[in-house]
Each structure stands twice: as C-alpha cells, then as structure tokens.
Automatic annotation (TrEMBL), chain A:
TM region(s), chain numbering: 165-182
Catalytic activity of the protein: a ganglioside GM2 + H2O = a ganglioside GM3 + N-acetyl-beta-D-galactosamine; N-acetyl-beta-D-galactosaminyl-(1->4)-beta-D-3-sulfogalactosyl-(1->4)-beta-D-glucosyl-(1<->1')-ceramide + H2O = a beta-D-3-sulfogalactosyl-(1->4)-beta-D-glucosyl-(1<->1')-ceramide + N-acetyl-beta-D-galactosamine; beta-D-GalNAc-(1->4)-alpha-L-IdoA-(1->3)-beta-D-GalNAc-4-sulfate-(1->4)-alpha-L-IdoA-(1->3)-D-GalNAc-4-sulfate + H2O = alpha-L-IdoA-(1->3)-beta-D-GalNAc-4-sulfate-(1->4)-alpha-L-IdoA-(1->3)-D-GalNAc-4-sulfate + N-acetyl-D-galactosamine; a ganglioside GM2 (d18:1(4E)) + H2O = a ganglioside GM3 (d18:1(4E)) + N-acetyl-beta-D-galactosamine
Name the UniProt record assigns to this protein: Beta-hexosaminidase
Organism encoding this protein: Electrophorus electricus (Electric eel)
Record-annotated Glycoside hydrolase family 20 catalytic domain positions: 210-528
Swiss-Prot/TrEMBL GO biological process terms: angiogenesis; carbohydrate metabolic process; ganglioside catabolic process; glycosaminoglycan metabolic process
TrEMBL record, chain B:
Name of the protein in question: Beta-hexosaminidase
Name of the top EC class for this enzyme: hydrolase
Every Glycoside hydrolase family 20 catalytic domain range: 174-493
Organism (species): Electrophorus electricus
Record gene name: hexa
Disulfide bonds: 67-111, 284-335, 512-529
Keyword Transmembrane helix: yes
TM regions (residue ranges): 12-33
Family designation: Belongs to the glycosyl hydrolase 20 family.
Keywords assigned: Disulfide bond, Glycoprotein, Glycosidase, Hydrolase, Lipid metabolism, Lysosome, Membrane, Signal, Transmembrane, Transmembrane helix, Zymogen
Length: 570, 536
C-alpha cells in the first residue's frame, strides 16, 4: 500500500496513466473464495493498487467506526491521509478502457444520484476561487471490465456485486460494480469541522455473503403510494439490499391492475382508481429498482389469502357451506374446477411478462381447510382422488398444477415453507421461504437444505412486529446459517428477507418502522459472518441512520442522541 | 279504518325510509372525536358550498372581529372544513346553493389572554338549515366548538360537503388534558412541536407539557445562563430553542387553546445542566477522592438555590402559565452518599442517613422559590412519596405502578388533599405489536376507593412520549392516533364511551381525518383512507 501513496503535489499534476489491473495474490485468493462460496458467474474486477487488507477484525471494526460504513465491507483499509472533494471540481467519470460509457443510463443516473448525495447538502457555492488544496480528489473513475457491462439487463440472482476501489491518487479513483460501490464511496465521504467534504485514503474489496437480500412490503392490507415504494427502494440501495419482494395482493385488497383480468382490481382494490398499481406504475417500480441493482419479485399468493381475488373473478373461490346450503362466504381458491386452472394459466402468463425477474413468489401459506371441508363438491372430489380426509393432499394437488402452469412460463419459483412441509413435488431450483417461528426455523432450514433445496430465511425478521427498546440487536444477532447441517447444506442458504407485513403499517409509519431496523438484516446478509460485535454495530448503525436521515429518509433513532442534521420532513 | 291503515302504512314507510337513511349515513353520525357530552343528530342534512359559507360573530358576542384567537381560528377552520377548497374553482355558479353561516357567540372576551387552569371550554352547537349557532362562555370553548363543527362536515362520493342537523352540548370531563413531549433525549425541531400542537387541538388536548431539558441535553437557551445550552445542548446553534422559538410555540399553542407547561426537572435528571453551570452538580466520590463523575444537583450549596431562583425567575416570566412542573423524580442517592460534604451537611441538618430528607429539604426550597414567583407547582409522585410537607396546592403526577398501585396512590394523594394527574397508563413511548390503543382507551382515572371529594381532585391526565427512541422521524406516527384514545377518556363521559368496539370505527374515521389534515397518524388495522398520507 505505502508504495502507492504518491507525493501529493506530484499526484496533483499527474493522472494515473493507466489501469493495468494487478490483483495481489492474496486478494485473488479471497476473490476465488468468494466466487466459490457464492457460486457467482462472471466476476468484474480491477484494481489500481495492491491489496493489503486488514484481517484483524477488531482493527477493521475500529477503522470502520471512524468512517461508519454500513454494511461493513469484506475487506478494507484506510489511512489518516485525507483528500478534499470540491463540489465544483469533483467528477465521477468513466475510466479509459471501461466497457461502459455515457450511453449507459444506469451508470449516468447513479453518478448523478451519488454526486447529489455527496454534495447535495452543501450550499450553492459562488464562483470558485482559484485555490488549490494540499490534496484534492478530483475524480472518481469507474471502470467496467466485463465485455458486456449489462447496462440494460435486469439484476439477477447471479449478478456479481463485488466491487473494489481505492483512493490512491489525488485525482484517480476506480470503481467496479458501480451502484453498490458508489454507495460505499458516498459513505466514506465526511464533512470536516470546516464543512469541507473529505475522504481518507482507503482500499476496499467487497462482495456479499448472501446473494438474496430482500425486503418484503405488503401492499394489500394497506395500499402504499408509489412514492413510498420508490423511496424505500432508494433506502434499500443505501443498505445494499438487492431484492424487493412485492407482496402485492392478499385477502384485504387487490391493487394490481391486470390487463387480462381488469375486474380483479376494479372490484378487489380498496378503490379502483386511487388505490391501484397500473402497468405504468409497476413498470416504473421495476425500472427504478433496476437502476439500483434491485430485483423485483412479485408474490401472487394462492390458494389461501385470496379473498380479494374473488370479488372480481366469479367462481374462483370455494363457496363455503353451512350445513347443506352455501353460507355466502368464500374460502381459498377452488381447486377442483378446470376454470380455476384456465384462469391461473392466463393470469400467470401476464405476470411472467410484466415482472422481468426470473423468479415469481407463489405464496402457498396458511391455507384454511374448514371451507373446503364444508363444501360437498370438494368432498366428492376428495373421494374421487382418493385423498381421504387429508386436505393437505388437496392443497398439494392444487399447488402441483399451479407449479406446472408457472413452469411453462419459464420462470423459477419461490414458495413459503408450507409447500415444502406438505411434500408437494417441487422442481430442483425451487426456493423455499422459511417464515414460521414454530417449529423452530433452524430445524426447518436444516430439513429444507437436507432435501437439497435452496432456502431463504424470514422468520426472525418480521419487522412489523415491534416492541419497546432496541430490538434491532436481536435482529442483528440472527445468523441464517446457524443450524445443524453439512457445509453443503449451508451453501443452499441463499439469503433472507426482512418482512414488513401491512396490518398496522401504511405510508404514515412504514419508513421509520422499517429503517434502520432492516439495516441490521442488511449487514447480516452482506458482511462476513464474523462481523457481529454489537458495540461496533451500534456506533456504525447510529451514524448510518444519520446518513439516511440526512438524505431525507425518516429512519428512526436507535437510542438517545442526535444527528448533525435532524429530519425536517414532516 | 282505511284511513288508519293508510296512516299505519305511512308510518311504516317513514320508519323504513328512516332506517334506510340511517343506514346510509351511519358512518357520519357521531363523527366527532372525542365524543361530545350530549349529541343528537338527525338524518336531515344540508349541502355546504365553500363559496357561500361564512363564519361570523353573533351580534351579542363579546368577541367581535379583531379577536385574535377567533379571527385566526375562522381562517384555519375554513380550510379544515373544506379541505379541497384550494383546488376547487368557482365553476359551480350555475348550481343553486343555500348560503350557510356558522355564527359564533362568546359570553366573555379574553381574546388576547392565555388559556389557563379554570378556562371554560364548554360550548353549545346547533346546526340547522342555513345556519349553525355556536355559543360558548369563552373563546377557548368556541375553539372546541369549531373543532367539533369541522368534524361534523363530511363529503359524499361526489365530493360535495354536507352537515347533518345536529345539537351538541359539550364540556370536558377533566380540565387538564395534557401531552408530554421530551426534547432532551432527542431534539425535536420546532416544526414537530407545532404540528403536534395542531393535532392536539384536533383531539381537544389543552396542555402541552414541555419536558424541555433532562440528562442528555439542555436545548433551552436561557437568557440568564446562556452557557446551559451553549455547553449542554447537543449542538449550541442547531439543537436549541431560542427565546423566539419558545415564544412561537407558546403563541401557536395559545391560538389553539393549549397551555404550555414547562418542566425543569431537578434535582435528578440534570446531568446536562452541569456542563454549563460549574459546581452545580454533586461530585461523586470513589473512596476519598472525586471520581470525576457527577450526580444530582448539589443541595448543600446556597449557590444552587440562588441559581435555581434566578433560572425560575426567567422561566416563569417566559412561560405564562400559572403552573410550572418541577420534576423531582428518580433521584439516585448513591452519589450524594459518596460525597463527604453532603454527608457532613446531612449530619449538620440532623437528617441521619435518610437521604429522602435531603431530597425533601431541596424540594421544599424549590417549591418556596416558585411559590414566591406566584406559580403553582406540579411534581412527579416521588415528591409525595418521600415528603410530608408540601404545599396543599401542589399537584402530583402519577407516572408509575401497576394498575393496583396506581389506584392506591390515587387514593393516598387525594386523601392528603392534593390534586392529582394521571399519566402512568399513558406512556405512549412504550410500544407493542397490535392495537394497544385499546389499553389506553379503557383506563378509568377515577376508579379508586375514595370519597366524591377525593375523586374531584383528579384533575386530569397526560399522555407521555418520552424520547429515548423517538425523534422527528417517528414522533407523529407513534403519537397519533394512539393519543386520541386518551383524549376521549379525558374529555368524554366515561359511561358513554366505555365500549372499545364502538370506538373502533369512530377512531378509524378520525385517524383518516387526521391524515387528511396532513397529520401522519398511523393505521389502527388493515384498511384504507380515501385520501392516503402522501408524504414519506
């Protein structure tokens, strides 16, 4: 490292001539480990300096306390040498040799976004005086090395999020995988006592521990205005989340405006015009997310949780019986009618084209059998199929047919754990979403992975559940891989999701309830498993929440204290 | 015979018609929160048009145009009554609308004064064709009546405004209906405080208890002792309340009929004071040497009393209210015990090793200081628990205990003849999953064993929002609509509002009203508002 600290005055005049990548052996080894660990595909990386990362965790935490990075990078080093950044001179540019250029709108937008985050709060400066700081960082150069920079692609499970950059020269700076790297870069910039933006000489090698780092928002129990969804995608990016699990419909309302079945929202939304997501809305959410490296996985939960579907689609739900006559109420999707499967075929055909992601979440949780049991037609069907009195067989029958339908759309699927528990035949790439606290989720994770399925964890991360005090600590202490299983089993854990169910949450309280509590999940899913010191986490998270507040996000406080710039929204 | 049958049929038809109308309008009936003491509404309704709607003073009213409180209130409530008006242009000229006037009559003036203990908040409201008459003893009652009227007006699906024929006779059950904000554990920007005052007025709260300083920070900028905030605030420039900030808060509160009750809590909870006032706190000892840490205020020095006297002289002139809150809670004796000078003082005063006597000695002195400044003191219950001699007019505030302990404490304090405030069941900073507003709603402040006279000494209660986990980011949604539950308990008749189930749909509606008014009130349960919150 030291060999690369150039004399400030020399560096000022001398731009680094090239970016011949030379990764130290050590760094490479780590890279390879990351690669194998996560089963990642293409790896984009470059470097402008030698790596000599800090292995000492304590030292890493201490340094990180000073710069307050969240989530903590896998490897980084920083020194007291600081450079100033001037709003009138600093630029984020494409490095020579980068395969991405100004035509990459994702990058151009990210450049502008992070420039604003870094300098946005500073007062408009007058005519810049001609003066030269001792050391100034003039440029952040972004180098993309892959032959296909994937500017217009959607992020996928396999997208490599590793990034690396270093502040070595006063004018040179290189970033790979930009959205996340820019976030880290912006967190490194701090205001000194004179209000000047500074950044210390730093070198970072970073990659996520888990590839699925999600947030679930529920837009059925309460409708969430588009603005709230977009704002939370923005905060997700600040926390390096990469999956927005959109629990878009449920019993309470059906706000998704389907082109094929417009009656679903016309009849099933809280209001057919003011409380719906039009195709344009959905598109804008997906694009906004894509710009931030976030996948959008839609959940259309069946056969339970479908009361609102029934309002706009006759004969879809099972009529419940009271004695020998229909009671007027309805239960889960009616699994015995062919019309049900015709409907699902058309519906999921639309869904699979609206939502670009390779996966769809099919739900499958909490199916109440009492209505099915009451219905004589269903009873007859059970008999015909030889299911006896085991209604979970009927559920499996439904799910099986649904999975076949969805498979034909070439999408992979995620399901809640019940589908696995009920022994439905599943494709090998099905992802099992563990959400129950009882039986213990660790046991469930062990069972699911023993069966060879990929799994993700949500049980301990139901952030809609609130209590008095610093509950982020319990959230933080969870480790998705702490269950009894072989290393192979552990590898099947692809990550987790923080869930914010909507019973008691809408636009009025969503953001402060989610942040910074979800940030605790973010670090658990991104950083090394050994990053678990609560004290260090507290001091970094406190600063990180002030970062978010400064960016206009009403992230609630951890405890007594203050931010330099308090929330002024209201 | 035929005629009789005909009449019976008419009757039946009328009845059915009435049923239909009631059914159709049921969501609007009793649309006032908190529930008025007496309200009768009929299904007869009147169309209101903002362009031919007026608020005016009755001829016999003591308050007339130029009355600062009501002039501003007319303007404010016009906007609250017609939330769409800003967007609506006058294209409906062709429609024939009956003009409608809300005529306000106040029996006593006092337009430029401050609401205080004993302010009369009762009012009568009669809504009939073309006119509504609001009669109140004071301008403060008129404000409550305006609020009720604004809640009676509703919009149908075509966004037309309606008000039903209504009679209201209303007055508060308790004269003290407070809300505490803590601006020490987190600094709350003035805007947060002002919008809280707005929401308080919507729920007819009438006391803003400003727990302005505490251990973590001292944001009050004192003109006598500027170092207190210079050194004790989180930041001496950005995290303080200047004198003009405080005046702004008081003025904003006054216009809404809300008293501002400042709390300067001592002798405990004063760590931040010590930063700007040397020798004020007790130096703690470790063995024979000072440990470098500090405990409560030092009660053995006369300089302490001089300082408090000067500070309260300032405070009582800045804050107009007849009452001042002196705190007096949670005094930790360990530091006093460790300090040899305090020990010597104890010996000299003959307190033995009973440190409650020392605290008592201190509180008595402070109570004398505020009494000399003609202020009535409010203190936390600890002061009653420890001390025998406190002035009769001192108000005790209950903040802790199980329901049984609270009932016992209510009995003891009122038996001793003190007035008492209840806040223990309304610590809304404590959160849990689900509909915890139900617990806040079912509190019975006068349910303890005691005489009628004792019951009358319960003058009200307070919602407390302590600041450990609350700042401007989450204050509003954590406070509202949970505080509304306490508001109804403190204003309305307990028998008429005993059912949580009946309150639920009303509160659900009211929270949508709050959201419509820009207050970030959180939902009670799943569902929706016609106009969702549009901020972040």
């Amino acid at each position: 490292m030291t060999s690369l600290i150039h004399d400030a005055s020399a560096a000022l005049t001398e731009r680094p001539s090239g970016h011949t990548s030379q990764l130290s052996e050590q760094g490479k080894a780590v890279r390879m480990r990351a690669l194998t660990l996560l089963g990642l595909g293409t790896l984009f990386l470059t470097t402008s300096c030698k790596d000599s990362h800090i292995d000492n965790l304590e030292e890493r935490s201490r340094l990180s306390d000073e710069v307050s990075l969240w989530p903590l990078p896998q490897q980084f080093q920083t020194s007291p040498v600081a450079f100033k950044l001037s709003a009138s001179r600093f630029k984020i540019v494409h490095a020579p040799g980068s395969t991405a250029g100004p035509s990459c709108s994702l990058l151009q937008n990210a450049f502008r976004r992070y420039f604003k985050y870094i300098f946005g709060y500073v007062n408009e400066q007058g005519q810049p005086r001609s003066r030269v700081f001792d050391s100034e960082l003039r440029e952040l150069q972004v180098l993309i090395t892959s032959t296909d920079p994937e500017c217009d692609a959607y992020p996928s499970l396999k997208t490599d999020e590793s990034c690396k950059f270093a502040v070595v020269f006063l004018t040179a700076f290189v970033v790979v995988f930009v959205v996340l790297g820019l976030e880290t870069f912006s967190q490194l910039v701090y205001e000194d006592d004179y209000g000047v933006n500074n950044i210390n000489k730093t070198s970072i090698l970073d990659y996520p521990r888990f590839s699925h780092r999600g947030i679930l928002l529920d837009t059925s129990r309460h409708y969430l205005p588009l603005k709230v969804i977009l704002a939370n995608l923005e905060v997700m990016a600040m926390n390096k989340f990469n999956v927005f699990h959109w629990h878009i419909v449920d019993d309470s309302s059906f706000p998704f405006l389907s082109r094929t079945f417009p009656n679903l929202s016309q009849q099933g939304a809280y209001h057919p015009y003011t409380h719906v997501y039009t195709p344009v809305d959905v598109k804008s959410v997906i694009e906004f997310a894509r710009m931030r490296g976030i996948r959008v996985i839609a959940e259309f939960d069946t056969p339970g949780h479908t009361q609102s579907w029934g309002k706009g689609q006759t004969d879809l739900l099972t009529p419940c019986y009271s004695g020998s006559s229909p009671s007027g109420t309805f239960g889960p999707v009616n699994p015995i009618l062919n019309s049900t499967y015709d409907f699902m075929t058309s519906f999921f055909k639309e869904i699979s084209s609206v939502f670009a992601d390779a996966y769809i979440h099919l739900g499958g949780d909490e199916v109440d059998f009492s209505c099915w049991k009451s219905n004589p037609d269903i009873q007859k069907f059970m008999e015909q199929q030889g299911f006896g009195q085991d209604y979970s067989k009927l559920e499996s029958y439904y799910i099986q047919r649904l999975l076949d339908i969805v498979s034909s759309t070439k999408k992979g699927y995620m399901v809640w754990q019940e589908v696995f528990d009920n022994e439905v035949k599943l494709k090998g790439d099905t992802q099992i979403h563990v959400w129950k606290m009882n039986p213990q989720y660790q046991d469930e994770m062990a069972r699911v992975t023993a069966a060879g399925f990929h799994t993700l964890l949500s049980s301990p991360w139901y952030l809609n559940r609130i209590s008095y005090g610093q509950d982020w600590q319990d959230i933080y202490r969870v480790d998705p891989q702490s269950f009894n299983g072989t290393p192979e089993q552990k590898k099947l854990v692809i990550g987790g999701e923080a869930c914010l169910w909507g019973e008691y949450v809408d636009a009025t309280n969503l953001t402060p309830r989610l942040w910074p509590r979800a940030s605790a999940v973010a670090e658990r899913l991104w950083s090394d498993e050994n990053v678990k010191d609560i004290g260090s986490a507290y001091s970094r998270l406190e600063k990180h929440r002030c970062h978010m507040v400064r960016r206009g996000i009403p992230a609630e406080p951890l405890f007594v204290g203050h931010c330099g710039h308090e929330y002024s929204g209201l | 015979m035929a005629l009789k049958m005909f009449q019976a049929q008419i009757k039946l038809l009328r009845f059915l018609f009435l049923l239909i109308v009631i059914y159709g309008e049921v969501e609007h009936v009793y649309g006032v929160w908190p529930m008025p003491q007496q309200i009768t509404q009929s299904t007869e309704r009147y169309l209101l048009n903002p362009r031919v709607f007026a608020l005016s003073y009755a001829n016999d009213s003591m308050a007339q145009s130029g009355c600062s409180v009501l002039d501003v209130a007319f303007k404010r409530y016009f906007k609250l009554i017609f939330p769409d008006f800003a967007h609506g242009t006058g294209r409906d000229k062709s429609l024939r609308f009956e003009p409608f006037t809300l005529v306000v009559s106040v029996r006593t003036g006092g337009c430029e004064g401050y609401p205080d203990e004993g302010s009369n908040e009762s009012y009568n409201l009669t809504v009939s064709a073309r006119q509504a008459a609001l009669r109140a003893e004071s301008v403060w009652g008129a404000l409550r009546g305006l609020e009720s009227f604004s809640q009676l007006v509703y919009q149908d699906d075509s966004s037309a405004y309606f008000v039903n024929k209504t009679e209201i006779e209303d007055y508060p059950r308790f004269q003290f209906r407070g809300l505490l904000l803590d601006t020490s554990r987190h600094y709350l920007p003035v805007n947060s405080i002002l919008s809280t005052l707005d929401a308080m007025a919507y729920s007819k709260f009438n006391v803003f208890h400003w727990h302005i300083v505490d251990d973590p920070s001292f944001p009050y900028q004192s003109s006598t002792y500027p170092d207190l905030s210079n050194k004790g605030a989180f930041h001496p420039m950005t995290h303080i309340y200047t004198q003009s900030d405080v005046r702004r808060v008081i003025a904003h509160a006054r216009l809404r009929g809300i008293r501002v009750l400042p709390e300067f809590d001592s002798p405990g909870h004063t760590l931040s004071w010590g930063k700007g006032q040397p020798d004020f706190l007790t130096p703690c000892y470790k063995g024979d040497v000072p440990s470098g840490s500090f405990g409560p205020l030092n009660p053995t020095l006369s300089s302490s009393y001089q300082f408090m006297s000067d500070l309260f002289k300032e405070v009582t002139s800045v804050f107009h209210d007849s009452h001042v809150h002196l705190g007096g809670d949670e005094v930790d004796f360990t530091c006093w015990k460790s300090n040899p000078k305090v020990q010597a003082f104890m010996a000299k005063m003959g307190f033995g090793s009973d440190y409650t006597k020392l605290e008592s000695y201190y509180m008595e002195n402070i109570l004398n200081i505020t009494a000399a400044l003609n202020k009535i003191s409010i203190v936390w219950q600890d002061v009653f628990d420890y001390h025998e001699h406190i002035p009769k007019d001192t108000v005790l505030e209950i903040w802790r205990g199980t329901p049984a302990e609270i009932r016992a404490e209510l009995g003891r304090i009122t038996l001793a003849g003190h007035r008492v405030l209840l806040s223990a069941p309304w610590y809304l900073n404590h959160i849990s999953y689900g509909q915890d507003w139900r617990n806040a709603y079912t509190v019975q402040p006068q349910n303890f064993s005691g005489t009628e006279q004792q019951k009358e000494l319960v003058i009200g209660g307070e919602v407390c929002m302590w600041g450990e986990y609350v700042d401007a980011t989450n204050l509003v949604s954590r406070l509202w609509p949970r505080a509304c539950a306490a508001a109804e308990r403190l204003w309305s008749n307990e028998k008429k509002t005993s059912s949580v189930e009946r309150a639920f749909p009303r509160l659900k509606d009211f929270r949508c009203t709050l959201v419509r008014r820009g207050i970030q009130a959180e939902p009670l349960f799943f569902g929706h508002c016609k106009h969702e919150y549009s901020g972040l």
